[in-house]
Every structure is written in structure tokens, then in C-alpha cells.
Amino acid sequence: MTDTGDRSQAASGEAAASRSDAGPVEGSNGGAGQKPGVEAARDDAAQPKKRRRRRRRRKKASNPSVEASAKDQKQAAEPQAGRKPQPKPAAPKDPPVYAAIDLGTNNCRLLVAKRSRDGFRVIDAYSRIVRLGEGLASTGQLSDDAMNRAAAALKICADKMKRRGVTRARSIATEACRTATNGADFIARVERETGIELDIVSTADEAQLAVGGCAPLLDPEHAAALVFDIGGGSTELMWVHHEDRPKPQILDWTSLPCGVVTLAETYGGEEVSEALYADMVADVAERLTPFKQRLEGKECSEKRFHLLGTSGTVTTIAGVHLGLKRYDRARVDGAWVSLDEVSKVTDTLLSMTLAERAAHACVGQERADLVLAGCAILDAIAEAWPAERLRVADRGLREGILFSLMEADQTRGSGGRRRRRRRRRRKPKANQSVSPSIGETQA
After folding, report:
1. Which of 243, 232, 249 is nearest to 178 (CA)?
2. Contacts of 130 (CB under 8 A, 6+ apart)
3. Which fold would CATH assign to domain 214-396?
4. Which of 359, 308, 357 has its CA nearest to residue 334?
5. For residues 367 and 230, what is the distance between their CA atoms, to the nearest angstrom?
6. S-S: 110 plus which of 140, 157, 242, 254, CB 3.0-4.6 Å?
7. 118 pairs with which residues across the strands?
8. Residue ranges of domains in the chain
9. Helix (H, G, I), strand (E, B) or coil at 235
């Protein structure tokens, strides 16, 4: 029993003795009759708070497992202040799917692809001759039938893009929509009916995309090349220098408002005599003269150059030259043809009737009345720039669009990583006062 308890009991005994002389009072002699549980409770109540806390600490120290368990439960229930919860790792994203649509004066083409190690891998493609520019040269407008054909083809393109899960796309329209007075109305109709937003590109953009699509076929053994794209309503020519350069450089270019559709409608394409064919070649040659003189003035005409053509005209000539019973892109794309061999194919096609050209596997019904107009344009180009060989490209604007989309995504992604690394390097240490430099202020 503590000293405090002894003093309390002695005081109570003295008080009881003063009240009665009948003998000793029960409990006055050291609490002989009290219950031990009541005595312990009174002892605890009389102890100061500080002593009780000291007693609890001694109990915790004698059993450390209890304290650790309580601490773990508290930490699990309440995260530590200032420590942010770690984010879960993001699930890997599917690679982007790209699409390119080229709506020309004659054709509607679609290409769907994914990026690959050496460029891109085609997962879907579509091509249909729609003759959007039919009658445009005489009326200045797109006809209802032509717009209906083009819109139907674009609906198929939209369905293919949706089915393939396209994430990045660009759709362009060229010469027919550039020159037609109702071209903008047709663009709005296509967006309403198909959801495809057509971009009417300039001739400069068209030339740039054509070179970008054909760049892998430029011969490194030549210093330069004349790249040309014979379209339905226009023909683009680009003088390209690619020696000792990571990318080909367009030194000069031109666009002729003359293609296979417009030339065939002007001179006729069904029954073409040798005299009529010569008139078509002379017409195109006259249009080419200013560009030829401009290149000579700039000293762009180098000895080591080759021709590189991208169009249905050059692929048809290559197929006929190779004697293909069925068109085979793997054999045509990248093939080399001499200008003498081009002349032989032209003579063969001139000797055929319209029905015979339509029955040819590499010409077909839809090109039978246009192929000789394309040959006339190619003849005029070969006469102005006589090269030893012509390389055939079954590629062009669509491939150029895909390359530009992928390059833009790659540049944007790598630029973002560089900016984040710079910010981390420039971040000052804690409790350190640093004045930003000019570059950091601008960033």
C-alpha cells in the first residue's frame, strides 16, 4: 500500500474515534474489514495522470509486437502525409492506323496502313475510276453523275476506314475540285453523306506529296530526276536533286492544266489516228516549253538524271511492255523501262481499236479511251528531257500522305520527350534560389 493510502486510512480512524466511545470502529485499525477490489480502485483513482501514462509506456515496452501491430494498422488506414499514391502502369496502346484518300479527276483511291520498321505496311486498299472531271473542260462544273459516282466510292472508303479502326487520316481532292465552280459544294456534300473531310490541295502541295510518295524509287546512282505525275485534269513535273542528301530537294516544279481526261475530251480518245496523236504531243510540248527554259536558265539540267513517272499511264505502259496477262503491282512498281521500249508500246496501242485496247488485261474498259492521251503527254516529256531510262512508280499521293502523317507524329512525340528532359535538367535543387536564364524564360 502506498503512503497516500496510509495517510487516508489513519485520518478516517481518528475521526471515528472522536464520534463514539463504544470501543474501536471497524476499519479503524489499517482497514481490516475492507474489500481488496475497492481498495485497488481507490488507489488507481488517487494516482496522478502522469504516473498512469508512465505505467502504460512500461507495458508497451515490455510487449513491442503490440505497438508494431497498432502502428502498421494506422499506416494502412492513413497514408503518410506528403507521399502521393503511385499510379498504376498504363496499359500499352494499340499502334495508330493511318489512312490516305486521293480523289483525283479520274480516280478515287484509298490506302490504309500501319507503321513498320522500313516504312509502313498496307492493311487495306481501294481504287475506283469515277471520272469526277467528266465534262468539266466544257462546262466548268462537276456533273451530277460524276459527283454521284465519286460520293458512292467515298462511302466505301469511309466504311473501310471505320472497319479498320483508322485513328489518323487525311483526304485530299485535286484538280477537278480546284477548278470546278461547284467544287466547294461537292466537298460539303461529301462531308454530310460520308463524314470524310476532303482538303482541296494546291498544285504545290500536290507536287510535294507526289515526290514524297515516290522518293524511295529515286536512283542513288543519278544526281537528279524529273518526277512527273500524269493525272486526269493536270500534270505535275518536279525537278528533284537527291545526290548526297538525306531527303530529295525540289529545285523547281510546274503544273500543267492538262491531263488524260481533259486532253482526251479535247482531241478524242476512242479513235486516235497518228496525225491526231501528233497534235496532242505538240499541244503538250508547247505547254512544257516555259518550264524547260526555266530549268536551263537555272542550270538544273544535269547529265546524270533519270525520269520517274507515277500515274496510270506509266503503269499501263510497263504492264504492256512486260506482257502481263494480268496486272501485277509487284512486277510493275520500280520497274525500269527505256524510252525506246515506251515508243514501241505506244505504237502497239495506236494500232489497236478501242475494243482491242479495252480487252487488254493491263488497259481495260475504263482506260481504253484515255491511255493514248497519257502516252502523248509522256512522249512530250521524253522529247523535252531525253533520259536513258524511265522508272515506273505504282505509288504517289497516297503514299506521300501516309509518310507525312507518320513523320508528323514521330516529330511531335520525340519533341515532347526532349522538352521533358530539358525541364528536369533545369529544375533547381530544394531551398536554392536560381534566376532563370533567357532560354528558360522563353521556354
Report:
1. 232
2. 103, 106, 107, 108, 146, 149, 150, 153
3. Nucleotidyltransferase; domain 5 (3.30.420)
4. 308
5. 14
6. 157
7. none
8. 94-201, 214-396
9. strand
Q: Average pLDDT of each block of 10 consecutive residues along the chain (443 residues)?
A: 43 41 40 47 56 71 57 54 59 82 95 90 94 92 96 97 95 95 96 96 93 92 93 94 83 94 93 95 97 81 84 94 92 95 96 95 93 97 93 94 91 55 47 35 28
pTM above 0.85, yes or no: no
Q: How many helices (H) and strands (E) does the chain have?
A: 18, 11
For residue 190, count CB atoms less than 10 angstroms from its CB and return exposed for 0-12, middle for 13-18, buried for 19 or more: buried
Q: Which amino acid is at 278?
A: A
CA distances (Å), 425 to each of 131, 429, 438, in order?
58, 10, 16
pLDDT reported for residue 117: 84
Please give the grid coordinates belonging to residue 28.
479503524
User: What's the pLDDT score for residue 25?
Assistant: 38
Residue type, 45: A
Q: Of 400, 310, 309, give the one whose Cα is nearest residue 100.
A: 400
Report which secondary-structure segment, H or E, holds 355.
Answer: helix 354-359
Cell 496477262: give the residue: 325
What is the sign, positive or negative, of the torsion defined by CA atoms of 44, 47, 53, 56? negative
366: closest CA among 379, 374, 378, 357? 357
Query: Could you tell me where the beta strands, DSSP code E, fall in 323-399?
Result: 336-338, 389-393
Domains 94-201 and 214-396 belong to one CATH topology: yes
Cα 12 to chain centroid, rounded: 97
